[in-house]
Each structure stands twice: as structure tokens, then as C-alpha cells.
Amino acid sequence: MLINYNMLLFNNKKIKIQSLELKNKSKKNVVNVLRLDEIDKVISGNKIFKLQVSVQKAIELKYSGIVTCGGAFSNHIVATAATCNALGLKSKGIIRGETIPFNHTLQHATENGMELFFVDRKSFKDKKKLQQQFEKDGYYWINEGGYSIDGAVGAAEICNYIDDSYTHIVCACGTGTMMAGIIKGANTHQQVIGISVLKGYQNLENDIAALLTETEKNKSFQVLHNYHFGGYAKHPQSLINYMNDCYQQHHLPTDIIYTSKLIFAVEDLLSQQYFGESAKIMVIHSGGLQGNLSLPKNTLVF
What is the pTM of this model? Predict the structure, then answer.
């Protein structure tokens, strides 16, 4: 961890590894979960890793603030706002959608000092134009979801908490930045598996590869696209039921966008004997639990 960021946010906290006993027909399988969600309630999970290099550059280059973009329920938006607030930086957030009522995510971002700008979906797609428009007056640009080589380099530090005995590392994918980082940090004998939470994002593998060196591209990794439950942020009742069952059985809180689909995928893959008999599996809990606040009260048991 970089010194300023570590001292102010990470605070040398030990990351817990939780064991889950998942049933595969008559057989029981144990997988371990790296609980990045417990690092910080707001700057949750992988965000603290993905943001660290960019934030450090902004500080060292004496930028007055950070500007980034995301959807109305973006964990990245909230985490960036809270990070900037903790480090004394200003922040701007470009939000996809012209007229969006304030929800808990946007409210939390503004409470942490972030100035919000709403743009239509067509304009939101042109990130280069947005960067040219908003990266002014001393603001450092960070891409949506932290997608960048810097974001991946920061995420590679997640592997510092995963020892060499693991054969498989499994994570959820949005932009693919965290997965690219884990590929960077993984050992050559470890296979990295990404569970895409977006429907039809077939270019994800290319976006991940764009953050890797030629040597890193030769490491073992795969993205699976069949566990999106209808698309990004879609959460049918079957997924809600699974989240509640997961918590009641394992005391593991998951979120509706990423980690619920991740744990479901791991359990399903185990039932298919996807990993093999001698596999030792580490699953990355990437945080994002604030997304559950969009659900009606008492939808979840946790």
C-alpha cells in the first residue's frame, strides 16, 4: 500500500479469510473468501486498491481534486467521494442519466463533498469528450469503475493476501479492472476466473487484455458470461432468495450486483466439477454492499 493512502484509509487492517462449506451433491467443498468488504464500510472492497495509484498521483502532482464518472448506484462514485473527502481533495462525479432522483448512493456522495453533473446516456458513452470537458481547474481524471492500467496495478496488491497454495482465484467483473489486477499479481500456476455481471459484454476479455503486458496475457484466466441473472444490477427474486440463504447458512453478506452472482457461480461450478478434485479456491469479496440499500426494507435478512 502507498504510504499516505494506507495511513489514512487502510490503517494496516488485517483482511479476514472466511471458509465456506458448499455442498456438491453428496460431497462438501470448502472454498475461502477474502473479505475485502470489511476493510471500510464506504471505500469498500476492491475500490481501495483500484483507486490507490491514481489518488497518489493526484496528490503528488498537486491536483486540487478528482473527477470520475458512473451510474446512479455506482460503488465507485461513493468510494471516490469518500476517499477524496478523507484526503482533503475536491471531487466531481459525472452521472449517467439526465434526470435521476437522489438515491442513497448520490446522497452519500454529496455528503462527502462530491459535486454531481448529470449527462444523457449518449454523451456518457464518449469518455474522451467528457474528460476534455471536466478535466479542468486542477482535477485529475479517473475512468468509470477505475478502469485503467493504474487501477489494475493497484488491484494487483489484492494478491498479497492470497498465498501460493491456491490453484484458483475467482472474482466478479464489471469493467474488468480488478480481474486484470489479479492476473497481474497471480502466480503462473494459478488460474484466475472472472464472473461477468453484465449481459452481452463480450468485449470484456479484450478490455481486460488491454490492461495487461504481453507476458501477463499468457497467464491462465477465463471470463464466464452465464451468471448475470438478466444483466447489470438485475436481481430477480431467485437471486434475493439465494442471498438470504447464503447469509443464513454462512453469515456471508453479499450484494445484488456483484458478489451474490459470484458466490452463486462458484457453487454452480463446483456442482459441475469445473475446478477439479485437487483445487484450492479463493473467492474475492469485492464489497459493494451499499448497493443493497436500494432494496425495499426487510427484503434481505441482513
Answer: 0.93
